[in-house]
Amino acid sequence: MKVFLGVLLISIVILVVELPKLLKMDKRKDMYFFLIFLLLSTVMNIVYYLQLPVPNPLDWLTTVLQPLTKLTKSG
Question: Mean per-residue pLDDT for 9-23?
């Protein structure tokens, strides 16, 4: 629980420090990417410290591309 709160606190501090700068410079695209990556990294850190299983993206890619490779090899 301490790790969860620590990661959340650090993410909030980063948000409070960086977001006003992006808003002041009127950088909307940068702000969206910043928020998306901050949220993604916060969630991934919490998942890692809670030792929850994380699916491997390479497995998804293999599942999607496997029919394509069978199609190209059969011809």
Answer: 93
